[in-house]
Amino acid sequence: MPYPLFVPLTAPLPKRRFTFDRNELAGAFGDLGTDLPLLIGIIAASGVDSAGVLVMFGLMQVFSGLWYGLPMPVQPLKAFAALVIAQKLPGNVIFGGGLAIGVAMLVLSVLGLIDLLARLVPKPVVRGIQFGLALQLTSLALKEYVPADGLNGYLLAAAAFGITVVLLGNRRWPAALLVVALGVSYALIFKLQLATATAAVGLHLPGWHVPARADILTGALLLALPQIPLSLGNSILATRQALTDYFPERDIRVRQISFTYALMNLVNPFFGGVPVCHGSGGLVGHYAFGARSGTSVLLYGGLFLTLGLFFSQGFAQVVQIFPLPILGVLLLFEALTLATLIRDLTTSRIDLTVALLVGLLCWGLPYGYLVGLGVGTILYYAMQRGWVGLGK
Fold first, then answer.
1. Is the dihedral of CA 83, 87, 88, 93 positive or negative?
2. Number of folded domains in the chain?
3. Could you list the residue range(s) of the whole structural domain that residue 282 is in?
4. pTM of the predicted protein model
5. Kind and range of the H or E run holding 187
């Protein structure tokens, strides 16, 4: 039976932790448009070993899929990655910063401070954070990915868009599988160079790294502090809200999400992995393209494990043959699904106003997630108490 794109938040859902079918395979590609460019950018800017990055990224996907039994993928830390790419920071600072943010999240989890934050931040602010992320993903998809290959790219994106509109939610013919197959076919016909592909093949294992104290301190100041507000908003609170929306029968608390976030970043740096998080965008992306269990995340992790173990030395060159317009279409529908979560606030002027304002702040300002989180929370309580004039 086909699933609609935007299912009601109270719709009954499958309860099996792992379901092996074509829809789980289709859902596995739901976050590809976000992750691939960030991983490529980090590897190119920092010179870190791509085997460690890819293998650990794949293992963290497997860990998350097994732990939660839900389409709960992990993503590179976005603010963290942007700073690494912009400043071309070396690997030792990346690993030190990753360890610092893992320790910070562990402290928040163990002391229960993350629960206090979850109670303090109202739902409209969380919805606004999700809406802001949707605006950012839409901008990235339409301004950078879709135009990347010129006229051919626009035609390719149009074909992928048409396939997705017709088939999204179809359980028999999952849209993402056909869209990815279209992209692979285009790459093989027009972009693949046999010499590049051959040079990339070979077994490579991650190396061992021990972050020095100076690197941990530097990474904490340069990378962890700017990342934490985004992580609290999107990786913890918004992810918990998305889980409540789509899987209400699974009572997953913010402390559990922050704890697994911490565990991953306490392990990753020692094997050359980049810092990762959970994210509402990734969960919604997998869900939008058909995933309903942890299988999609296991399959997604298997993809990166294969790339890391056998194709890591030419990773940046090989994956760049995959057309960005296809990733743009996948990203666009992930953003669209995220944006529509705001619909459950439309009955309250206060809630909707706060959510829209927070979304615009997150999208448009430097450190927008920190500003949106703080301003939105203060404004919400001020409106509720009548200190700021806006009728309900």
1. negative
2. 1
3. 22-340
4. 0.77
5. helix 175-190
